[in-house]
Amino acid sequence: MKLELKDLSFGYDVSRMILRDISFTLDGGGVFCILGQNGTGKSTLLKCIVGEEKASGQVLVDGRDYARYSQRELAKKIAYLPQNHVPTFPFRVLDVVLMGRSAHMRYFASPGEAEERIAMDNLEFLGIAHLREQPYTNISGGERQLVMIAAALTQQPEFLILDEPTAHLDFGNTHRFLDLLLRLNESGIGILMTTHFPDQALYLGAKTLVLRGGSLWKFGPASEVVDEEGMSELYGLPVHIGQVGDRRVCIAGEIKGDIHGQ
Amino acid sequence: MRSRAKTNKAWGAVFILLPILCILVSLTLGAFRVSVGHVFRILWGQLTGSIPEGITSLETSIVCDVRLPRILGAVLAGCGLSMAGGVFQALFGNPLADPYTLGVSNGAGFGAALAIVLSLSPLLIQVSALVFGLVSVGLTFLLAGRKRRAPVTMILSGMLVSAFFASLVSLLKFTADPQEKLPQIVYWLMGSLAGLRYTRLLVILPGFLAASVVLFLYRWRINILSMGNREAKSMGLNVRRDRTVVILAATLLTALVVSISGIIGWVGIVIPHLARMIVGPDFRKLLPVSASLGTCYLLVIDDLCRTLTAQEIPIGVITGIIGIPIFLYFILREKVSWA
Q1: Rama region for A227: left / alpha / beta (φ>0; ψ in -120 to 50; rest)
Q2: Residue B113: which domain range?
Q3: Subunit contact B280:A72, Cβ cutoff 8 A
Q4: Does residue B256 lie in a domain region?
Q5: Is residue B38 included in any domain, yes or no?
Q6: Among residues B312, B257, B4, B258, which one has the least CA distance to residue B111?
Q7: Tens of pLDDT along A105-147?
Q8: pTM above 0.90?
Q9: Which class is A1-77+166-225 in CATH?
Q10: Which residue(s) pair with A65 in the sheet?
Q11: Chain centroid to CA B306
Q12: What interface predicted TM-score (ipTM) does this complex get?
């Protein structure tokens, strides 16, 4: 799937634009990360892409204007996971995952065995099949996020858009989640996510978009975009890139002694 | 899996049979007692057109002309308010949402009061209540404007419209003739199923059935809508359209019920909670179970209203007196937080 933005601008009022003239093209099934300070409009950009906010300019999905798709058609192309879903009702986990199938079902149909099979496959893929009968409200935040991913996968989209997906995950689960994203990408799903950690862009080998002051500041492979100079300037403090074994890591703050070894 | 399907079926049968049982028992109750056997034979006679032996025409008349229309009214009211209440709680993600959240009740109250002041017939009072009930919801939609997808905006607009019509009702009460009109208005506002006739039921039946069918068709989509607007949108729903259709159906259901019964509170809050405790939030089960429990609940309450004292008690009074302690019990047991 190809996602193109042309001169996208957005603001709640004209004097205070949040996003200005953003243009880029995301091709095929890559992994893309959006970096930027708090309040630069990362989440807003995602909302504009999925039509949650009405921006000026164009969003093209496979060359066709976003507005000319029905919501149902779009759901087969893009699944969007907002930050931290707060559940109201204790639905069964399996039912939540089944909801993701609705765009593929007849309008007034209820999910049946075929849908249940797809949902269970995805729960198993994510290693949470044992949660199927649990109430969605009684599982941990990390598990809940996996359930929402399972629902998104059951939607069988070509592109997954995630807003700070690791924001509420612990240290270990954050890393497991990044590996999961890589696995999903291998299976052919494009990923676009916002993150506060340049390190994640490096680890994912993502094409990286850097937002600064509401504009697209840099766009390129993480290995080029995430450098000491640029990141120090962006976040306004010393940022270091070092090598640990075969991995490049990015950490913030003053460092005494040599980290550029090996 | 197989055994669960079996228990599901057993429960399904319970929820179908329970309201039927309540209807039959209700037909026997009243100042003039009619045995269950006689009720059966009278109903059978009506269905087949034969005249059953050993049954007086007084009994037939009491069962068919006095009790049955009123009991059918209780069925429609209990079932309609409970289904609508469940819908509003799901769509507004709010435990305090009820069928009257968008201002139907006070709008209808104003319509009824106006018709009473103008000395119109019971049927026209009903029509006026229905029209103003729908007008008030229309105003709520207009007030909420383009932000109507946000539940808080809708709830606030509903409160304002509701309060506005409540003031108009007060104005009518203030100007109404205190000997004749005022008690009639007050009595209507307290809710009552007394004196219902088949014609008044038939007026609301087509709309009632249509709205119920819409809610039934949307039962799976209501689940998705209750997950939140962004989630529902990402899953491929046209949130604005689906929400509007479902809210309009639930509103119509409420307005139709209020037009025959007056304002019966607490059914639409308490019953959906109770049903959710029993079968969970999945609307495919919650909708029929709410309908079943609501029917039984209101039949029992109406039986109490009819039989407890020599003079009839308005039904809205009893649903409050019984419903509020039940609701409190849920809150204290933390069943209402849903979490």
Answers
A1: beta
A2: 18-332
A3: no
A4: yes
A5: yes
A6: B258
A7: 999 999 999 999 999 999 999 999 999 999 999 999 899 999 9
A8: yes
A9: alpha beta
A10: A60
A11: 18
A12: 0.92
